[in-house]
């Protein structure tokens, strides 16, 4: 919800194409490259994880990368899709520079979210959803 204003502004100002559908630009049995065609990051991410799950079920493993996309929301949401199918799910992205490294005065590293969800015995699961910085950007914005 805290990003709704950003998404709406980017759509209204033509920075994101709200009518574009992502496409598979290149693929093999286990691997796919998704062109997001400047669509909403959530649209691209859902499409990508659906492709990845399908490939993992067919071949035992699926790897999907995306380009020409936008902010993808909460990384764990996409990993959860794989977990619900009984699969290990990874989701991660790069971000614009946000963090100022030690002994510098300029932003040089992004928060670069990482999520890994793994099924475990008895219906339990391991769930990691984190940023590579001390505090995720979303927490600072709230």
TrEMBL record:
Which controlled-vocabulary keywords does the entry list?
Oxidoreductase
The molecular function terms of the Gene Ontology recorded here are:
oxidoreductase activity
Note whether Chaperone occurs among the keywords. no
Q: Which InterPro entries match?
A: Mal/L-sulf/L-lact_DH-like_NADP, Mal/L-sulfo/L-lacto_DH-like_sf, Malate/L-lactate_DH-like
Say which domain of life the source belongs to: Eukaryota
**Record SUPFAM superfamilies:** L-sulfolactate dehydrogenase-like
Q: Which Pfam families match?
A: Ldh_2 (PF02615)
Q: Which family does it belong to?
A: Belongs to the LDH2/MDH2 oxidoreductase family.
Q: What is this protein called?
A: Malate dehydrogenase
- Per the UniProt record, the source organism is Alexandrium andersonii
């Amino acid at each position: 919800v805290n990003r709704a204003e950003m998404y709406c502004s980017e759509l209204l100002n033509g920075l994101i194409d709200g009518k574009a559908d992502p496409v598979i630009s290149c693929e093999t049995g286990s691997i796919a490259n998704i062109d997001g065609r400047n669509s909403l990051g959530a649209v691209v991410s859902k499409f990508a994880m659906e492709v990845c799950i399908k490939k993992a079920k067919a071949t035992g493993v699926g790897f999907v990368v995306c380009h020409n996309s936008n902010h993808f929301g909460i990384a764990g949401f996409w990993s959860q899709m794989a977990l619900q199918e009984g699969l290990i799910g990874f989701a991660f992205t790069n971000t614009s520079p946000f963090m100022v490294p030690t002994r510098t005065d300029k932003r040089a590293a992004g928060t670069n979210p990482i999520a890994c969800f793994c099924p475990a015995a008895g219906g339990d699961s391991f769930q990691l959803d984190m940023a590579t910085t001390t505090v995720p950007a979303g927490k600072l914005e709230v």
